[in-house]
Amino acid sequence: MTASNVTAVERVIDIFEAFQASQRPLSLTDLADAVGIPKSTCHAIVSTLTARGYLYSLARPRSLYPTKRMYDVTRDILDKDPFVERMTPMLERLRETSRETVILGKRQGDSVVYLQVVESTNSIRYSAKPGDIKPLHSSSIGKALLGSLKEADLRAWFDGRTLPSITTSTITDPEALITDILQSRRAGYFQTRGENVIDVWAVAAFFAVHNETLAVAVAGPRHRMEASLAECAQLLVATCSFISRQFQVK
Q1: Is the preceding peptide bond at 174 cis, omega within 30 degrees of 0?
Q2: Does residue 1 register a pLDDT over 60?
Q3: How many CA atoms lie within 13 A of 178 on its CB side?
Q4: Quick check: pTM over 0.85?
């Protein structure tokens, strides 16, 4: 795929995210401004999306809005997801027992991508969305996924790497973080204490299904997690073990 094709894909995504942010019909000028592209370029993309049934036009005021086609396409795709659909009920049970937000994630390059988020019902909670991208070194899921590596591979990943501070609590010294990850692996779960989001604590554990390594985290505000971290870790490890066994059943 050429650079121009990548840019075109990014612009299509930007257009849909502009509608998500505005939550109202947008004119061609509004869309071009929101995406930061020339009006002529925006018109070409919009024309294609309209012709394919992803957008429809309004006469007064002259504007555009997405149809349900994208929703139907993504819903059909998600219904056949190899992990999320089958794991979600188990993640929901973990949310009910831990009373905190539960996240399923997978490594994507040098980052973590959230595949599913089951938010706590508490009014004060950790909030996130599927598709969110988080750093490997500062997120509990990232630590868990790094912890799934052999020690030699783990050290190789850190070799020559600069670890940016996400918060004031982020561990940015590679040796200190390697020690933290190795100690956590022996304990059976991985922790963050405000390292990715201020005042949010989390525990995570990894497991393998169908030759893929995934991780689940339980995350919540420090004032609750500090007292319940051991309990959440116990529930988390049991859930990951249960999920792994379920995927072994043919």
Answers
A1: no
A2: no
A3: 15
A4: no
